[in-house]
Structure formats: C-alpha cells, structure tokens
Amino acid sequence: MQNNKPIPSVSVSYAHNGSSTKANEFGMRAMQERAYERRGEQYLLIKSPPASGKSRALMFIALDKLHNQKLKQAIIAVPEKSIGSSFNDEPLKKHGFWADWAVLPKWNLCNAPGEDGGKVNSVGAFLNSDDQVLVCTHATLRFAVDKFGIEAFDNRLIAVDEFHHVSSNPDNKLGSQLERFIARDQVHIVAMTGSYFRGDAAAVLAPQDEARFNTVTYTYYEQLNGYEHLKQLDIGYFFYSGSYTVDILKVLDPAEKTIIHIPNVNSRESTKDKIREVEHILEELGEWQGTDPATGFQLVKTADGRLLRIADLVDDDAAKRDRVSAALKDPAQKNNREHVDIIIALGMAKEGFDWIWCEHALTVGYRSSLTEIVQIIGRATRDAPGKTRARFTNLIAAVDATEQAVTEAVNDTLKAIAASLLMEQVLTPRFEFKPKNPTNEAAPGFDYGAEGYDPNKCNVGFNQATGQLQIEIKGLAQPQSAEAQRICQEDLNEVIATFVQDKTTIERGLFDEELVPEELTQLRMGKIIKDKFPELDAEDQEAVRQHAVAALNLTQQAKQLALGDNAHGEDMRSAGEPSTNTALIDGVRKFAMDVHELDIDLIDRINPFGEAYAILAKTMSEDSLKQVAAAIAAKRTSLTPDEAKDLALRAVKFKKERGRLPSINSADAWEKRMAEGAAAFVRFKDEGRYA
Questions:
Q1: Whose CB has fewer CB within 10 Å in the chain, the N or C terminal residue?
Q2: pTM (2 decimals)?
Q3: Domain covering 30-219 in this structure, CATH number
Q4: Beta bridge pairs of residue 234
Q5: What pLDDT band is residue 7 in, cutting at 50, 70 and 90?
Q6: Which residues form the Helicase ATP-binding domain (predicted)?
C-alpha cells in the first residue's frame, strides 16, 4: 500500500437539512408522500435509495388499494427471508394515517413454516381466504404462480421488493411471470428497487413492459441532502500487496462502526481460508478476550484499551452464526450505538440489512455486480445521531507479475473504477439539460448564481427544493418521443452504467494516449444507445447519447474544479472541502463560465475517464500502473468493420454540416479519425465484409 489513507474518488457533501426524515400529517416522509400520490397507478415502479422508507411506502399504497381501490388481497415478495421483517406490523394510525398495517403471523411466510404441506400450499390457502396481506420470498411466489396459474392472482396487488433481482432474461422465472401478469392485465404491480442501474445484467423489464409503469424516483441526492445528521459520503478504492489481512488497519479505523465484507472464496483476494481470514483480522485489531455468552460476539481488546464487540457472520457453525445474527436483529438494541462495533460478513449483511450506526462499509475484492456494490454502500448511508460522515472503501489486490494475475487485476481495477464513476453519478443532483435558445427564460425556483440569469450565456441553475441542476447547452438535441424523454429524465444512469462497464471503452479511456475522445463519446456511446434502445429513431438515439455524455462529463469536470487537484492525496475533509453541498453545482457553473460557450461539441471532446485516471495514478504504485497500461496496450486492435461503419456515418453527417468530407490530413484529430474510418469502410465494403 502506498499511503496510510485511501484517497476518496468520490467525496460529496450535503446540506443535512432534515427534509427527507420529516413526516407529514399522515406520518409519511418525503419519498413515501411522493409514492403515495401515485397510489392510483396500476403499475408503479419506485426507484429509491436504501433507508428511504420503501417498505412503509408500500404499506400506505397497499392499504389504499385494499380499502379504496377494491383489490382483494396484497402479496408482497422479498428476495430472502430476513427482509420479510421489513413488513412486520406497523401502528400507522399512531402517526396520523387512517389504518394500521397488520400481517397475520401465519401469512408471513418468511417466518411461518407454512401449512397444508408447505409454503407454496399456504399461498393457495391464502388466495382462498378472506385475509388481506401475505408476505413471502420471491422463490415462494414463483413456485406458487407455477402451481396455481396466473389467473389465480386476478384482482390482487403483487408487490416485488428489491426488484433488481428480476430480469427480462428468458431464464429469469419471476421476470417471465411478471410479463405474463402484465399481458393479462388483471393485477396491480408495485415494484421497488434501491439500485439505480442494471448495466451489469439484463434489463429488469422489456421496454414495452417498462413503458406501462409509472415511475417514482427519489434520488440519493434528495435522500442524503435531507438527512438530519449525515452530511458527507466518501467512496474510494485502495490497492494493497500481499495478504489484505496484514494491511487492513491501513484502511480500517477501529473507532468507526464498520461492516467488513471479506472476499468471495473464488476471488484472487481470497486466501481460500475464510475462517483464518477472520482470525487474522481479529489479531490485527487486538487481543482476543473470548466470546460474549449472550450475543455470541467476539470480544477484542485494542492497544489503547478499548473493548471491541465484533459480530462474526462468516463462521460455518450454523448455531453460532444464527445466534450472532439474532443478536444483531434484536429490536431492543436497534437504537443502541454501543451494541456492536464491527461486523465481519461474506454473503450476509448486504441488502435489507439495517444497522443505522454503520459509518464504514469496507469491501475486500470486487463484488459480482454493481447492484451488489450499491446495496453494500447503502448499509453505510443510514442517518443516525452523531454520525456526520460515512464511507465505502473497496480494497483491491494490486497487479501481480504473472500474466493471469495481471489480466484479473486489470479487470478488477476497471470494475472498481466503473463502480466509482457510477456512484458519483448517482450521488449528484438530477440533471435537466436544455438547448440554449435566445428565447429561453429563467425557470421559477432555480438559483442562477450571484449574477442571476443571463440570456446571452449558457446558464446553470439549481433548484434546492427539487435537487435539480438545469444546464443550458448550445446545439443540444432534444428527445422527441415520450420514451426518449423518459430515458433522459429517468434512465441516464442506466445508460452510463453500460458505457463505463464496456471493457474497450474504459480501457481506451484510461490508457490509450492516442485516444480521440469522440471515439468514446460519439462512437462507443452511440453504439451502446443503438443496442440498448433499438426502438428509438436515429434522432432520439442521438439526443439520448448527448444527454448521457453531458451528464457524465459535466460531473467529472465539476468534480475536478470543485475539489481542486488535491495531488498529494490529503484527507479531503481538510483539503479545502466546501462547507456546504454546493461544490458540484459551483463546479458545473464555473466550468460553464470558463469555457464561455457550453456546447455539445465541446462536451464530446472531453475524455470521460480523465479524472478517474488522475485518482488511479495517486492510488496505485507507478510500477503497477505501468503494468496495467502495458497489458491493455498489448491487446489494442485496429478498426473493426462496425467501428468503420459508424465513423463513415459520422463523416456523412460532417459533410452535411460543413459541405465537405473530413480530411485525412486535418490537424483536428477527430476529423482525421472520421476520414480514416470512411476509408476503412470503403475498403471493408469492397472486401465484402458487410455482406
């Protein structure tokens, strides 16, 4: 390891104004009120971060559907049994609502053993009963639909929690069943997810099915900005050599409440002995004092005399692990900060795990998906008294000398950077891009800076109430169809997820010194849009492309300007960090002013990975960095027929705009690349490569 502190690749400060935790007269927080306003929709998709109150939002909506919309029953499906507790009885009347939430114990199949031969038969018994609410796992629902048929669920609400587990992939059973429910059109569906992107997997819904859903989006920015206590979130990656257990204290602060996720046994970070890894971590922390007989927590005395209470969820002894797990879920200890200090887990303590005191989510090795990373980060983003800062650290093994290890190391490094870029995008205010026109006017509720709105410039406005950042861009294409408008408003992070995880894109963006940025921003992003949204026409595909590139590149430029160079890797809390949550807004505004005229061509000329490389260069040793660059350079290939075709199309567009073809001798690198592509296209065509 190069330094004693990881350098956050993302460091975002918030206003902590308390708005997201305040309840209205019905006991609803901001997100729940927004979702409840859409309670009349037949198909509702709620995208909202962990800890924003999705479970209770569903209770409000389900009660209305049962009592006022004449639905017969509500069936709530969760991915695993432990999450079923989120839907336990709630005295909602006490907080101002008109009904309480109640689930008969026998119908909470996450706890109850089931009857009549098991849980699936219990679903059948429930469907034939007069009771109103059932809670079960996704698996139980799948088997029940198989057994009783789609028609058996008519006139009922089906609510799917952690909806990112569903997929439009034909092999995903629940996804296929939901398609059939939508085709029959006799149920109401409420889908909820805390993960903003599925770029590492198949789409959750087919486009035609997703178009049926009304979406409620509550952003990370709104959630964290509206907290009462938490005001800063840092996300970073850190490279180490040798065994991670030896160096873990360089990133683990025993004074912080921490969840450590040790590596999957199949990952290169694993020592292949998970029990010994836990023992090593305990040894590094201090002197073992035994096991607490009541909770099963490991007791470790640190060098400064503190007694740490450590929950080990890795132990293979099911009885021991269950005792520890039960102690962590003890409702009497929920508000006791001193109940536990550190939790060590492998596959547990991710989604749905509610420990509000967690200040640091420390993950060793790359996880299987971005969704998993979002869920892990969500463990640290709960609001709690005295908790002003939270962080997520991804600990990654540095490059080894052997060829296989280099390949794996490169892949893990690129995945960590992709996750970091995506989380940064998710944590920022929502962008609203507008083409710059002479007729534009200031929008109500937006602050355009000290000098106010200037009709002669590209303005940047911020709406504190809605968390929207409005940016005027010269030459920006506007989406025309309703679907393209929805994508630009709701799904830019999905697009960016696919882009930054495209291996060729991120490799070239980080390590190709001869890169022409437009090859990524126009060609690669353009191809991703075409593949992802084939139903859009060419004009709408281009509009979505421009909006996605603008969102990614403006966030990166704003970060650079807001945080400064910070070249020596100081703790960002003392490195001139802005005192309020305006850093990103000020950064975007400053960038727009510095370039005088913010236009889409300028934005296309920015390498989206430039800032990520700067962070990487500070975090990774020079030798490792050279090794990664060399491994990527060795694979570099010349133009493919598809790339040549895309460049030729850009060359045609260039000719329409300029009245001439791009020149192979141009001083402009992008014009020269288009000319090369057009020539390659003609050559490939003559060779019959497009037959």
A1: C
A2: 0.81
A3: 3.40.50.300
A4: 11, 391
A5: low
A6: 24-224
